[in-house]
């Protein structure tokens, strides 16, 4: 499976990962604040349509690797966050919510495949190649850390991974 996401149209990025299961374990990493905080962001999540989603990012806490935050992201060094609203919820197979307020939407779809789980993330309503590149590189990096956590391996470094894959996405999305 190719780890790089794809632009499925001019405002949508789709990512796929085959993860160690079972499906309930992966679901918990999406919905439980503490588990989600190990690969993406902590925050409360009301698992019902219309429920509130809080995401509080602290990239330095995702990995034991100590890295300098890139200058363009220094404002995020001590954390940042935003809220959204759950738009779809069917545990443990489907979760969708608005991202960054209501500017875009992210959907997580889980499917059991033997002892593994296929996770498909579709992020829609993105504004052009630049935002698609940033979102794809972010998801790519965060999903790599999720894969590491589920495999019980030391999570890869965040910022150096992000910057490496961002270069590839710039070419793929012709930013």
Automatic annotation (TrEMBL):
<dbReference type="InterPro" id="IPR013538">
    <property type="entry name" value="ASHA1/2-like_C"/>
</dbReference>
<comment type="similarity">
    <text>Belongs to the AHA1 family.</text>
</comment>
<feature type="domain" description="Activator of Hsp90 ATPase homologue 1/2-like C-terminal">
    <location>
        <begin position="22"/>
        <end position="149"/>
    </location>
</feature>
<dbReference type="InterPro" id="IPR023393">
    <property type="entry name" value="START-like_dom_sf"/>
</dbReference>
<dbReference type="Pfam" id="PF08327">
    <property type="entry name" value="AHSA1"/>
</dbReference>
<protein>
    <submittedName>
        <fullName>ATPase</fullName>
    </submittedName>
</protein>
